[in-house]
Amino acid sequence: MRAICVLGLGLIGGSVLRAARAAGLPAWGAADVADAEAASSAGYTATADLGEALRRAREEDALVVLAVPLFAVDDVLRQVAEHAPRCLLTDVVSVKEPVANSVRRIVPAANYVGGHPMSGTAESGWSASSAELFHGAAWVATVDETSDLAVWREVAALALACGAEVVPVAGAEHDAAVARISHLPHLLAAVLASVGAAGGPLALSLAAGSFADGTRVAGSDPELVRAMCEGNGTALLSVVDDALGKLGAARGALASTGSLGATIGEGHRGRRAFDAARQARSAQLRIDLGAPGAHAALAALGSQGGRITAVDGTTAFGQVPAADPAP
Amino acid sequence: MRAICVLGLGLIGGSVLRAARAAGLPAWGAADVADAEAASSAGYTATADLGEALRRAREEDALVVLAVPLFAVDDVLRQVAEHAPRCLLTDVVSVKEPVANSVRRIVPAANYVGGHPMSGTAESGWSASSAELFHGAAWVATVDETSDLAVWREVAALALACGAEVVPVAGAEHDAAVARISHLPHLLAAVLASVGAAGGPLALSLAAGSFADGTRVAGSDPELVRAMCEGNGTALLSVVDDALGKLGAARGALASTGSLGATIGEGHRGRRAFDAARQARSAQLRIDLGAPGAHAALAALGSQGGRITAVDGTTAFGQVPAADPAP
């Protein structure tokens, strides 16, 4: 039973602490005074002394989970370097390459595998955290040819204990994908909310389902959204260009032929592909984490939209989308 | 008790027929054979013979409700001109100026006031219709200085009987507002779904709340979405330019300074304005529909985000957002 030390007890970190303890793992956390007190009052082991939490992690060989916003990562890593420089380390930050670069620079001896649970709410902070936040969600655990798969297995085991399914993927591939399906949605929600509000009281009075859904995430804490999107700026820039190209093409078609058929048809097919991807995955497979080619097998599973649903000893058990039936 | 004749029994028309009968109004409908049979099987009076339904409307001086997609409006209006050329007439089509122009051209003697209930689901057709669809929703009833307010009152009474609240607004103002809060959301949802799906199985496997919400309406019937957006092409074009400008500005800021603060901050304020607009409206007012200035008073109420919540004799009772308390 690997102990868990969570640094940062906001929505995600707080939920990791709750879920880990609910799964029976020894778990404690460190956070700012307000969150640490709130967690303590709720019966969890939490301190505002980061060094104390990290020294205990070193003594108990815990998995340290970095759960602070990207702009605070370097500061916290310097504490890790001071108190537990060789620890097992993961994170739950929404971008993976910048965190991996910081870890290499600041805590080079740490045994690090990046993580990212794909869950959230419009709320933030310890008060919004929940042991159920990750149930059924995807939880990325990064993998490339240099990854230590024993460490990867520890991170996957935590994600599974929290009720998530594990998606193995290279950091850069993760960052490109989340720019598309998480950071662009936040940016488009902001643009839509701005354009809608510019219509004044009448427009907001008439706004209903499509506007409410399309702008929901614009209600999230703008500083957190900003940090998340800006932290993945390079990947996001390329995806924003895709969106500008498609929206510009729609504009051109509307102004010339008056037709939005191509835009709306392609969007409808995209949404149907998303719905189909959420259907049952049925092809089962197992990956021996000690075998040659295990790294590539994990990455291939993630790329195909597969998930690891259990780990046992040195074996990972997964599911990948079944091939389409013959036409 | 004004009788109601609904032409078209899809999601909206079917829901009007159900809600009107639930409110105790004499009501019947006409539709294509499939929807007419489905409505008849459910115990409603429905026919596939448009002429028959319209002749009854003329005999009973019913309010005729045009509930077909924009592309079918002219054909159905020709039937109205043949069978009930002087009827009370309204519609539930998502754009108002093009319908008003068709009515003036094809049924110039009709007593017409445009309507638009701001309700919908991703589903369509009679099978998705419901007597509760309009509960608490906004229902536009167009007004300008030439409107016959006795007809306007009949349309408002139907909307109120269906459980909606009435927003009086000029047709062109309606079309500009819905371009912002209904048609642009559909277009951005299509763009987002396309860009997301272009990320392949990995991106769709990682997609969660923000992508699911932002693309929900891309799951709607693409032909209906297309007809709705293209039918409001002129107003939509100007709003798409606003969105392109804001998304382009975000792209420029990201590429130069790396900051998305302006975009995300403005979006957050827009969403908060939307949330605030949904709070209780508290200033009450009454408008004498027979008094000079009634047209302007109705239009002003709509422009301020107000709603008419009852009509009685020749008086309309409404609510407008209370002025902000003094700072």
Automatic annotation (TrEMBL), chains A, B:
Keyword annotations from UniProtKB, A to Z: Oxidoreductase
Residue ranges annotated for the Prephenate/arogenate dehydrogenase domain, each copy included: 2-285
Taxonomic superkingdom: Bacteria
One GO biological process term: tyrosine biosynthetic process
Family matches, as InterPro entries: 6-PGluconate_DH-like_C_sf, NAD(P)-bd_dom_sf, PDH_C, PDH_N, Preph/Arog_dehydrog, Prephen_DH
Pfam family, one: PDH_C
Molecular function GO terms recorded: NAD+ binding; prephenate dehydrogenase (NAD+) activity; prephenate dehydrogenase (NADP+) activity
Family, similarity comment: Belongs to the prephenate/arogenate dehydrogenase family.
Name of the molecule in the record: Prephenate dehydrogenase
Organism: Tamaricihabitans halophyticus
